[in-house]
Predict the 3D structure of the following.
Amino acid sequence: MLRRRSRFSGAGYGDARWQGLGDAVVEALAAGRGLPWASLAFILGIAGYFALPAEPSAGFLIALSGGLGVLVLRGRRRGEAALLLLLGALVVSGLATGALRTVLVAAPVLERARTVTLEGFVATVEETESGVRLEVAVVAAKGLRADVMPERVRVTVRSRLDAPLRVADGVRVRARLMPPPGAVMPGSYDYSFRAFFDGIGATGFAFGAPQRVDLGTAPLLLRLKAGLGALRMTIAGRVQAALGETVAGALAVALIVGDRTAIPPDVTEVLRTAGLAHILAISGLHMALFSGAVFFVARAGLALSRKLADEQPIDIWASGAALAAATFYLLVSGTSVATQRAFAMTVLVLLGRLVGRRALTLRNAALAALVILVATPEALLDPGFQMSFAAVVALIAAYEELLARRTPARREPDGGGAGVTAVAVSGLRVSTRWLGAILLTSLIAGTATGAIGAYHFHRVAPLGPLVNLLAMPVVTLIVMPFAVLSLALMPLGLELLPLAAMGAGLDLVVAMSRWAAERTPGDGIVGAPSLIATLLVVTTGALLCLAPRGTRKLAGIPLALAIWLQSVDRHPDMLIAENGRHVALRDPAGRLMVTARPTGFAGEMWLRADGVGPKSFAERHLTRGRMNCDALGCVATAHAATSGSPLVVALTRAPEGLAEDCERADILVTPLQAPTDCAARWIFDGPRLARDGATALYFDVDETAAEPGREEAAALSVGTEEPARPARQGSAAEPGQRRIGPPARVGVSLGNASDDDLDEKPPGLAGSLAAISVEKRAGRPRARQGEGGQTEGEQAEAEQLGGKQTGGMQIEESEAQDTRQRQVRADATATPMRAMQAPGVPSASLSGSGAKGQGHPALRVTAVPSYRWRRPWTPSVPVAQ
């Protein structure tokens, strides 16, 4: 120890302050902090890989990391510390791991929408509200070349099936396939990122029911998965038979076999609002309770024999039984990513018990994280991974600190006295400590995951600690133990009573959740926080948990910065979907209005990110009755959240409307390719959105154009350099104006993925660590992401209403709703767009910028794209001509 300490003290550090820091580092290394620090360096390397502007050479990074590793080993043999070199090697190893993983999983991704006939084996089957979602391992695809044929596709079947499909069944289906969609707004959940690493090259919907065909023997992995699927269905059927089609039955199936499709959406929403949604995902809590129950029951049974207890290692035997139980639970619960993480951590804990070492340590947590990230580095951007390990690290560090500060007298209190009174006092003391531990655990875990959860889910649970204090004893003592008992008794047909007790406990948990949800203001929706502020809060937690003693006071610096950045953060004034068919914009009162269905994926995410709860969704729908529309498109006005003149926005759906909308509108949004001489000031057409993805716009007062009689000098700020576009015909180019050049590529636009093709995932940091390097505005970084389009269900709904679909926007007959608006029929005799007046805007402003004739300052528009650069997983959005 003295020899190691000399490397951090003395001449190398000069004064006492640096010497004290060196001693603190040595003390932390001796306490087992070395592996957690190494894992942090490795994590930084993975994060850096996903933030790179271009794909690096995997071979070069592997060679570089190997060379640095050799230098570290040579330095260690010479007695040199080489800590900086070691950290550098770990960072480069993280970069190499991410690059290698991308090379290994790379598979063809559909570049544009296609209608094809697929043949393949069913890989997964999932029941949804709108039908059955199939993942198909493609064997053949009529109409696609072999080199562009996706290996796996995800298809939603809405037609009635003659018989249920099973994993490993051979099927033939005619389907409309689209590239996996990006995210709905910059910085949100990117489905295309997850699809790339899951090997899914297209999503879409089926025309009719799939046909069963004989494709030969299915791959071995699918056959094994089919056997496990049959076992899971059998267990789920037994649970439903015992509890019926009730909420408790649906929750019991979710907790035992991991199938959440039967849980009513309102129950899921209530659990999220109350802060109990974590009990739905089979994660570390469930795995620990399941395997822990088996461990203690097995150990107690073995301890009944004095001879076994005295002569045999019953702890090791009980740990082996718990490990077997955890493996069984992993298989029957569906082997989801979250369950795999929980299983890895449980295995490390039980192995530590087997070798007689402490089970829950920061070293074990770091080792579990390294094991997972080496195999799947993309898991770093998964919300479940981030929240799971944030909670585990915070809990371990907090309890280690509490134990270190307790005096010996408090660790072993005097239990003096005897008789009934002493037993009662002892029992009360134990119960109080247990409840206090539950409350403390809830507070620590909630604090550790609060900022991450708020970023991903745009919500917090203010009553979460209280509800967890009330509900977790029920889950710990009733729900999970009886779940284990029911599985153990199921082969004997004796599962009815344990399942009844489990169902009663779940009913009580739901009742507590409803009570808390009713008392949570605004359903806990807080809107999307700043990414950089969120990362600074995470940095604060990392310093508190892992920094050497004496340096933790530095955690106040990133925390203060996070608070300041969040205080100056602002939400977008306008959002444009990646397909150019939907927008979100603010009305004169500053409220965000959406043209997409508020209950659809895009509309819901936009509103939640702006801090709007589900109860207010209906009033935020910008229907065609609230805009001026004809057969060629719609006209609306976009307002800044603060001040300034409104801007006229044209949503052009037909090529015939482009010329007039280019002349009249301030902002042109279209899935088509705009003419190169389009005079609109800000153009977001198909080629631009195909390159940039979903785009967020920010309006600011343009002081240079606020003087009376002065022409507006509007500027378009983007994250990448662009050539200046031509000015309006007959006028010179205006100061500061940039041009959006001709499109780099043109494809064919035929729809987008449906909402059902998007997993119910949070819109959070997944794929967004790359946003650290994206242009920041007003303290807010804007990352990469995009949006989906009109669903097949919306088309069918429009047909049932007698409406007509034009480019994803329904045109229907309705009554006049406002004297300021003109609702026109979408037929051949519709009123031309140029003769229409945007709601609430004088017609004079249609011919120029939003600053003219308004008496308000002109606005400057800043556009923040989702994708500043192209990576292998970046979606390719089709473009209509």
